[in-house]
Amino acid sequence: MHKLSGWAGFLAIGAALAASAWSIRIGFADYQMRRETLDGMEKAIAVTPDNGEYYARLAWLVSDRDPDKSRNALRNAVLLNPRDAGSWIELGLRAEAEGNNGMAEQCLLRAREADKTYLPLWTLANYYFRRQDEARFWQWMKQAAAMASGDAEPLLRL
Q: Whose CA is closest to 143, among 113, 118, 110, 126?
């Protein structure tokens, strides 16, 4: 019995050390991410490569100077977190800007699947407006109008 309690204590200490190491690791990654620098974001991703939010933030940080890296980061973000509507929307808008309307539509519809709130509806209505697809425009516009809170002027202008 005495030997068993010794092993139990050893295992408890080992578990506590592992939990402490994990907490330090996550804290370091979070600190690096909050620096909002390319170097910090890359360090955060190196420490916790399964965090989709870090990839989404990396995409934002490099969007102007490295579009390919930004696009790849967004792809990683939605791969790790398919419910990240913001990254789906950004991927869709970029695909549209590049002339890949099929991919753009897919991404924007995925954003709507992931998030049932106003922003994906509004984005889809705008997308179909730009495509001059009147039927789909009104489909999404009606849903967006039903959810609009506050100032509805942008909807009315569209």
A: 118
